[in-house]
Amino acid sequence: MKIGFAGGTDAVGSLGMMVESTDNRLLFDYGLTPAKPPKYPMKVPPIDSLFITHSHLDHVGMSPYVCGEYGSTIWGSEVTLEVGMVLLHDSLKISKFEGWSIPYDIHDVRRFSEESTIIRYGDKAHLGPFNIKAYDAGHIPGSTMYMIQENEGKKVLFTGDI
User: Fold this and answer.
1) Distance CA 102, CA 99 (A)
2) Is omega for the bond preceding 37 within 30 degrees of 0, making it cis?
3) Cα separations (Å) of 69 from 17, 19, 88, 141, 144?
4) Each residue's pLDDT tens digit, 75-134
5) What is the pTM of this model?
6) Alpha-carbon distance 5 to 77, whole Å?
């Protein structure tokens, strides 16, 4: 299991953590920092799936980019995915109103909705060598933390904002 960060390591915002094996690449959160101008995380290579912890822009704000660029599956709680859609539509409107470019468009936001998969607390997702289990994070409604376990037993808990 190899872990890397696309953002969020030295400041609040633009969070993104990548977990890789030889044949599978997962991303946990991919946000933007709402500022003037907005700040974005590093571009990530193609990923298989994106797991979102909760619906704050610094965690979900760049998720349409990976949908449009790579067709990645998005995982999150029902509340997170629904509120995330509202925030993403709002981000497009605000960026247009304020004259800032944003690296995705309405088609990518629609694809976010189409590629979304609901994961409930206690559910497990099996992706390549990884088993991911969802837990209640208790941060905001729908917030989820993910236990990532590789087949050989290594574990990482990604919490989002705990």
Assistant:
1) 10
2) yes
3) 18, 18, 16, 29, 25
4) 999 999 999 999 999 999 999 999 998 999 999 999 999 999 999 999 999 999 999 999
5) 0.93
6) 23
